[in-house]
């Protein structure tokens, strides 16, 4: 009996040590070799082109393109509305996605698989197909207008398609899986004991959620929000298909400069500004969220 | 002794048989003559293949390889090819106006020398072969409308399109990053004469467009979208492409159009600078201009106007009836000032974006 407990003690004592030490199993040389292919791919496929892009925007060693970008109200205006749309889409994805992720983490395995399939299958479908589906739904003689008219809420068909609202709805739909999956993976690793402990100590369901579950799921919320926000800033296909003239986004302007006017230095300047704005917002996100305790456990 | 199912010798032979074609194949494809042309694909591509590429291959033995891309993609891709010195296309199709631009001249070969051989041809117009490319076909962007009651008058001019009392219903205009034709229509509706149209008075055009803006239900971006709106009844009057209007009529939709409110636009075949199969590419272009049969066959399907008058004579009565007549072209059709449009393209688009959003 005492022998058994000794063994179990030894096992439990060794376990944490081995997980901590595993990163140190490899010598520095091996670590470099293991990381080298990824680093090489990143340098060739990402760092180099982005550097070239930024350099192109300063072509001729002048700030001429940036001056034009600031001087014309169009460009900063479109940038502002791009950020606004990305924000709304991120918030909407969070509000709609969190309950789904929570459900997936709490459900029995079989049922959770069904819910997961409902999240994954749209993710595997082409963005083009999903965007066209919204055109079908929202057009003048579409299903939504038909339904509203049948119920008697509206007299004539509403203008739903080719509006900013349509862009936000369609983008939220396309980006929601990117919010659900990170939150789900955080909630999944959250031991149910924590919530049980909170309830034992007298917290109600709401209180337990707000003081335990929500702070501990912040890493997932952070990851999901950043993914959604960054992807939304660069959206091109969906706004082109379901958006109208009022929903002009930054990617549309970059596309115009690249393919219609062939003014690549100016397109590069627009892209650089969008990239800078993206990085600033990611940094701000981190700052805001790291004020809360939940993020101390993530890096 | 264990006998292997395959002797080593056999394995070697099999391996060689497997590798040899791989070694020979690329050189074989290099040896056979070919020419690479980029076009917008779909029905357009099929019609050109049947009428132009296949007879060309039959006559010369030169294989025609087609690549599919949108016009905007082609422009960007060709610019990138020429810039990096890795030219894989020989020919591509571009709009009449773009073919006269500086950016186009920078990436394509000047065809002035090539065009000399067509100078004496009576059936070809003066612009059938130009420095920027050989003319593929011409068509129009014009006013199209849903016909209904035969007793009612139909819109004929751009002023009619702006007159929502006489012609009620919603409107459609294009918004595919090429705003001159919308502005030009607005100016014509505002009473500017065809001769004084260019240079465009952009501010006046936008003021006139402010009047109609509330009635515009769709600013279409693709040809499909412009057709879909007519099908759905999203609008009853629109500025669309003639080819699409004809396609709708062929479908049986009650669609009419007016050449009194139309702009002449066309497509050109351009030769990429540093093309690998330059000689074959020139042969393919010459084949098009020299064979009215090919032009007639393609334009019969695509509802376009071929460059050669002989080709027009070869086309069926039905198609010729809906084609713009010479006097309509002379009296009403607006030929855009490509030089002015290209020189002001960036400013036009910027002002348009500002107004639109």
UniProtKB/TrEMBL annotation, chain B:
CDD domains, alphabetized: PBP2_polyamine_RpCGA009 (cd13589)
Main location: periplasm
Cited SUPFAM superfamilies: Periplasmic binding protein-like II
Coiled-coil stretches noted in the UniProt entry, renumbered to this chain: none
GO CC, one annotated term: outer membrane-bounded periplasmic space
Location in or out of the cell: Periplasm
Keyword Cell inner membrane among record annotations: no
Record's protein name: ABC transporter substrate-binding protein
Source organism of this protein record: Ensifer adhaerens
